[in-house]
């Protein structure tokens, strides 16, 4: 009997999840397991999707539904409750249970990126579901942060040198720069940056976004979201298969 998993979101052309999981299933000899993409035009379609796809064993959630899906779930894990967003859902006896693997995945990935003695603050660009996971992880790490939702390719963030130097870690949680809109990035005073700054972009397609490219011109340490993606995918699989 086929075990079906998937990914829901509005636009999924950027996502590597389907290939990742189907390759994983093939490698593990799980020939009765399949992973599909399910594009949902807007959040009004979430409830219908859940009722029509109760055969799914589990699925991932990507933008823009990580918070919109919450009212339709029967229960949440502790992480999902604390973060206030869900990116992994599983079928438990016909009822949907939500979890968040983004937060723990970002926390683990961040530990490999920042120096252990990092003592500065973080600037988080964006206020969506992914941002909530990042905020949770930063709090776990004890890194103070400021969230700004004015990040856009049209409106510059007014950050003077004194203010900017408080935030040595800048995390992009918005879809700016994501395929196919690769020529977009937050308008930051990039000319004020140097090698003491760290840029983490949750976008992983393309591998090097405009945000990361502009940072690297000023010797900023950069990291894209691919490592976080693999980590959250492994945690999603663990969530779906544990009792």
Helix-strand blueprint:
Layout: E1 3-9, H1 17-27, E2 33-39, H2 46-52, E3 58-61, E4 75-76, H3 78-83, E5 88-92, E6 95-99, H4 102-113, E7 121-125, H5 129-141, E8 145-148, H6 161-164, E9 167-172, E10 198-201, H7 210-216, E11 221-223, H8 226-241
Parallel strand pairs: 1-2, 1-3, 4-6, 7-8, 7-9, 9-10, 10-11
Antiparallel strand pairs: 3-5, 5-6
Helix pairs in contact: 4-5, 4-8
Task: Summarize this entry quickly.
This protein has 243 residues and is of the alpha/beta class. The chain contains eight helices and eleven strands.
Name a few traits of the molecule.
243 residues; alpha/beta; Rossmann fold; 2 domains; 6-stranded mixed beta sheet; 5-stranded parallel beta sheet; 8 helices; 31% helix; 21% strand
Number of helices: 8
Strand content: 15-25%
CATH top level assignment of the largest domain: Alpha Beta
Distance between the termini: 19 Å
The backbone outline, from C-alpha atoms, is elongated
Structure characterization notes:
The chain has 243 residues and is α/β, with parallel strands linked by helices. It folds into two domains: 3-101 and 229-241, Leucine Dehydrogenase, chain A, domain 1 (Rossmann fold, 3-Layer(aba) Sandwich), CATH 3.40.50; 103-228, NAD(P)-binding Rossmann-like Domain (Rossmann fold, 3-Layer(aba) Sandwich), CATH 3.40.50.720. The chain is built from eight helices and eleven strands. It has helices at 17-27, 46-52, 78-83, 102-113, 129-141, 161-164, 210-216, 226-241; strands at residues 3-9, 33-39, 58-61, 75-76, 88-92, 95-99, 121-125, 145-148, 167-172, 198-201, 221-223. The chain has a six-stranded mixed beta sheet with strand order 2-1-3-5-6-4. Helix 7 links the parallel strand 10 (198-201) and strand 11 (221-223). Helix 4 packs across helix 5 (129-141) and helix 4 packs across helix 8 (226-241). The two termini are 19 Å apart.
